[in-house]
Automatic annotation (TrEMBL):
It is an enzyme of class 4 (lyase). This is Argininosuccinate lyase. It comes from [Eubacterium] siraeum DSM 15702. PANTHER family: ARGININOSUCCINATE LYASE. HAMAP family: Arg_succ_lyase (MF_00006). Residues 8-302 form the Fumarate lyase N-terminal domain. Pathway: Amino-acid biosynthesis; L-arginine biosynthesis; L-arginine from L-ornithine and carbamoyl phosphate: step 3/3. Pfam families: ASL_C2, Lyase_1. GO terms for biological process: L-arginine biosynthetic process via ornithine.
Amino acid sequence: MSKMMWAGRFSKEVDSKVNDFNSSISFDARMYKHDIKGSIAHATMLGECGIIDPADSKVIIEGLNGILSDIENGTLHFDPNAEDIHMFVEAELTARIGDAGKRLHTARSRNDQVALDIKLYLKDEVDEIAKLVRELINTVIDIAKQHTETVMPGYTHLQRAQPVTFAHHLMAYAQMLTRDLTRLADCKERMDVMPLGSCALAGTTYPLNRKRTAELLGFKDITMNSLDGVSDRDFCVELCSDISMLMMHLSRFSEEIIMWCSWEFKFIELDDAYSTGSSIMPQKKNPDVTELIRGKTARVYGDLQTLLTMMKGLPLAYNKDMQEDKEAIFDAVDTVKLCISTFTPMLATMTVLKDNMRTAAAKGFINATDCADYLVKKGLPFRTAYKITGTLVALCIEKNTTLEQLPIEEYKKLCETFDNDVYDAISLDTCVMQRGVDGGPAPDAVKRQIAELEDRLGGI
Ligand code: ARG
């Protein structure tokens, strides 16, 4: 741009370094569609209200549609010298249609325009992210359905604790991801309020029909305070926080997959298409995808920190600091989409090594609680039963055996209440089957959990 928009007030051109420093077009150009859509709605409303000549409104809309299709078909390129996407589109419009183009910005400021554009852009992105999360949840559920009887050790402190099933373990992630989905829906609800008409900060003297603009753009409502309308970036922070939580869940899932792939666990094997090798160690098959997701979680948390800190202590209303919102929220959105769209097919193609899960579950005394419960069911107080079982576990460790293999005589030596039925009570399958409480790992309980979640997902 050779001549600045504000040329009337200034006697000099802006220093080219300042121009570059000030410019956001390199990262806000991606909002071109939303900027044009917002301008078309604004021009439509201005024409309908008689604020500009309806004939001008028509020419403006045609001009904007022309710009949109030229950007999309690659014949119009963004001018890197433009300050931002809003200035670029307006200048291009005026170059194309002349004076009518200069009327588009009536009763509007870039302050409400940019707030509008980001909301329009992020509303679409929320839908995209939600779609990806839904696909991931469905993939998790599909795998869970095949593994309601696959016994594996459940852990606390990363120590084998009590038996669960692979389905139950997976469904824990489906629950987290479903909460993420509801958070995204909730965030979109609060984002769905149209700021245009707030203008620079103090609204306008023109008789705008803001509700009409909102209707044209598919917003549920309009903002009710012009200062807030232009200076609110809560929705960016909120979305970034929701994405951070989503990444937190993905990183936990990723971490488990990394462990499960190791020779120490060997609970699963990732498909070759989703693994990488080593440049020196021929035997290696590395879970790079999951490690990257774990790593990228850090950068999304960084984006959240950027947004929170950028907004901290900002006086009303618009301040240029707020231009820094875009790179952070765009990065968070891009990163989470990239992560989920790689993670889902990786999960769908992995091989579950059931036998290894079961072997691991058979070691580590994860049926010790059930052994204690056996005595409780025969009338002993829990603390007494707990102590007896602890002594039995120590005995097994000493004899290098398991509770299942320990002869009944040894049991009886410690407590007369034990009988041969103890072996059934502490068998892995019994331990899982008996945990049929709502939310428990027993196959029927997990099937109920899946059905309940599928039902709930239908309503989100
Ligand atoms: N590029 C600016 C942003 O992203 C647009 C708003 C500029 N408004 C202003 N008064 N300088 O925030």
